Amino acid sequence: MEHKFFTEKLRLENEAEQRITQLAERAHNEAIVQLDDASRSVFKENIRLNEALSYHMKEVEELRRVTVTLAEENHSLALHKETCELMMRDSVSQLKEQREKVSELKGKVVVLEQALARMAGEFERETREVQQQVLVSTESGRIEMEKMQKVLAMREREMNRVKRLARGIVEQRTEMEKFFQEALLEVKQEIHASRRQYKQAALQMYQQQMSMARIGQQDYPRIRTFNKSHHSTNCIYTEQEDAEKWADLNHTKVDISELTWEQKEKVLRLLFAKMNGIKT
Predict the structure, then answer these.
(1) Is 76:226 a contact under the CB 8 Å cutoff?
(2) Which residues form the DUF4515 domain (predicted)?
(3) Per-residue pLDDT tens over the stretch 87-130
C-alpha cells in the first residue's frame, strides 16, 4: 500500500509539470498570433497556472501525510508481531515442560505396576509352598492349612484392592493434570487476547489525544511507549505486569471472579505445584 501511494505521488507531480509546460507553450503560441491581447492573456493564464500548481501541491502534501501515517502503522504492526512471537515461544516452552512431567509420571506408574506384579508372584509362590506343606501334614496341619488359605485369600483380596486403588489414583491424577494443563492454556490465551485488546485500545486513545492536542483542543498527554523499554516511565507493558502482582496469595480469601487473568494463572500454577508436591 505504501508503494502505491509513492507511485501515485510521482504520477501527480509529473502530470503537474507536463501541464505547466503545455500551458506555457500554448501561451507563447497565442502571444505570437495575438500580440494586442498578449499582456492580458498572460496575466489570466498565470493566475490559472498558480491555482493549478497550488492544488497539486496540496495533493502532494496530503500524500506525504498519508505516507507518514502508513509508516507509523507499519511500525506498530511490527511491534505486535514481535510480541506475539515471544508469547508463542513461552507457550511452547511451558508445554514441553508439562509433557516431560507427564512422561515422568507415566514412568513411575510403570515401576509401580512392575512392583505390584512382583508382589503378586511372590504371593502365588508362597501359596503353592504352603499348599504343598499342608498336603503332607497331619489333621492339625490340614486345619492350619485352612487357616493359612483364609489368610492368603484375605491378603490376595487386600492386594487386589490396593491394585484397584493405585490404578484409580493414577487415572485421577492424570485427569487432574490434563484439566490443569487445559485450564492454564485457556487462561494463557485469554491473557494474550486481553493484553492485545488493551494495547490496541490504549494506542488508539493515545493517538486520538495527540491529534486533539495538535489542533489545540487539549493539552498534550504524557509521553507513552508501547514497546518494552527499561528507561520509560509510562510504558504499557509496566501496567500489564502490574496485573500479575498479588501479595500474600497463600493467606488471602478472594473471589475468583474478581481476579485478573494473570492472577488466575498464578492461582492455577500454585495449585498445580501443590498437587505435585513442589514448594512455592
Answers:
(1) yes
(2) 2-80
(3) 777 766 777 777 788 778 777 777 777 877 788 788 788 878 76
Q: Residue 70 in contact with residue 1, Cβ under 8 Å?
A: yes
Cell numbers at residue 165, please?
486403588
Distance CA 78, CA 193 (A): 17
Smallest CA-to-CA distance from 275 within 166, 163, 181 is with: 181
Cβ contact 224:234 at 8 Å: yes
Indicate the pTM of the whole model.
Answer: 0.33
Q: Is 177 left (phi over 0), alpha (psi -120 to 50) or beta?
A: alpha
CA 120 from chain center: how many Å?
50
Distance of alpha carbon 78 from alpha carbon 198, whole angstroms: 17
The three cell numbers locating residue 224: 507513552
CB 256 within 8 A of CB 264: yes
The cell numbers describing 267, all together, are 492461582
CA dist., res. 122 & res. 111, Å (int): 17
At residue 268, what is the residue type? L
Q: How far apart are CA 160 and CA 229, in angstroms?
A: 62
